[in-house]
Design goal:
Helices cover 37% and strands 31% of the residues. With 325 residues, it is α+β, with helices and mostly antiparallel strands. It is built from 8 helices and 18 strands. It folds into 3 domains: 3-110, no CATH class; 115-246, Jelly Rolls (Sandwich), CATH 2.60.120.1440; 254-324, Phage tail protein beta-alpha-beta fold. β12 (226-231) and β13 form a beta hairpin. It starts with a helix and ends with a strand. It is globular, with a radius of gyration of 20 Å. The strands form 3 sheets. Strands 1, 2, 3, 4, 5, 6, 7, 8, 9, 10, 11, 12 and 13 form a 13-stranded mixed beta sheet that branches. It has a 3-stranded mixed beta sheet with strand order 15-18-17. Strands 14-16 form a two-stranded antiparallel ribbon. α3 crosses α4.
Length: 325
């Protein structure tokens, strides 16, 4: 790629980031109509680059909210579930920083023809059939890159379920969050939320190992029922039941299933699938436990269940559902 082409690619990426951030800011202010929605959908349909820019800006926007909440928490280890406000300008800057950090090399990487890029919006679900017979299901707000040989994939963000056609001479590998998951005849799910990756092994075997030179982090061989959580400094593996795995992967059927889950965790899951967010007003509400099965889009049904079963106050504020004592 010439220097001129690289510079133009970088400028184009920055312009897309600004446009994507403007869409999100408009929605966050509550200035949103059906015509706005139609216009956004038309812009997204113009190019996969628009979808990717929007997803990155949305991720930076949400991360800015999340980091703000953690920063002012009295206990950084406890998820409060309260939504903190942050200035629209700061959120736009956060979105642009994501693109800026990619640099010219990053822009060149994403537009090379050697790979396919698949992306879903918030609440989206897509099944991708690869030429080698493998299948991948993408969950909400997910970006996945697949190499031209269909035997290597990169999960940039979100969640995906992989049903792999095993090939002993050319194992399938998924890279995400500084780790590699190598197929050994496997069906498994991977989730990358930016702070950690989670690998749930349904069938077969898989090897989870670091790719960024963390010699102090040992690799793990996963078998059915294993759920591994990998951070930049460690891998922890727990064993769960087949039913628990089925519940955890309920998103493949459009379901969220909770069993004695803290209300803060349930709200966070719903917020991953919906533009209408659930806001927990105080810590005592966040710690309350709830169970049940809900459609990923059923924010209203979930809110009424919280009101009727737990006795909490539920009201609409702007585009959010606020739950309080």
């Amino acid at each position: 790629m010439t220097e001129f082409a690289a510079q133009n690619g970088a400028v184009g990426a920055e312009s897309l980031a600004e446009r994507a951030a403007a869409w999100i800011e408009r929605h966050d202010r509550g200035e949103w109509s059906e015509s706005d929605k139609s216009e956004l959908n038309a812009w997204l349909a113009e190019s996969p680059a628009h979808v990717i820019a929007f997803l990155r800006a949305e991720d930076a926007w949400r991360r800015a909210d999340r980091l703000s909440a953690l920063r002012i928490s009295h206990d950084a280890g406890e998820f409060i579930g309260e939504r903190r406000s942050i200035s629209p300008l700061l959120k736009i800057v956060a979105s642009l920083v994501v693109i800026a950090l990619l640099g010219v090399a990053g822009v060149a990487y994403y537009w090379q023809p050697r790979e396919a890029i698949y992306a879903t919006m918030v609440g989206g679900h897509q099944t991708v059939a690869l030429a080698d017979g493998s299948r991948v299901e993408l969950g909400t707000s997910t970006v996945l890159h697949v190499a031209a040989n269909h035997r290597t994939a990169w999960l940039e963000k979100g969640e995906a379920y992989f049903q792999i056609k095993h090939d002993g001479t050319q194992p399938f590998a998924v890279k995400s969050g500084g780790y590699r998951i190598t197929d050994l005849g496997t069906g498994f799910a991977v989730r990358n939320d930016g702070l950690f990756i989670k690998v749930s092994l349904v069938e077969g075997r898989a090897r989870l190992e670091p790719t960024d030179g963390q010699a102090y982090v040992r690799s793990a061989l996963l078998t059915p029922g294993d759920v591994a959580v990998a951070t930049p400094t460690s891998i922890s593996v727990t064993k769960t039941t087949a039913q628990s795995l089925l519940d955890e992967l309920g998103w493949r059927r459009g379901m969220l299933i909770f069993k004695h889950a803290p209300l803060s965790d349930a709200a966070e899951e719903f917020n991953r699938y919906n533009a209408e967010h659930i806001v927990i007003a105080d810590r005592s509400v966040a710690r309350a436990l709830i169970g049940g099965s809900f459609r990923t889009s059923d924010v209203g049904v979930f809110s009424r269940a919280v009101r009727d079963l737990l006795g909490f106050h539920v009201e609409k504020e702007g585009g959010d559902v606020v739950i309080s004592r």
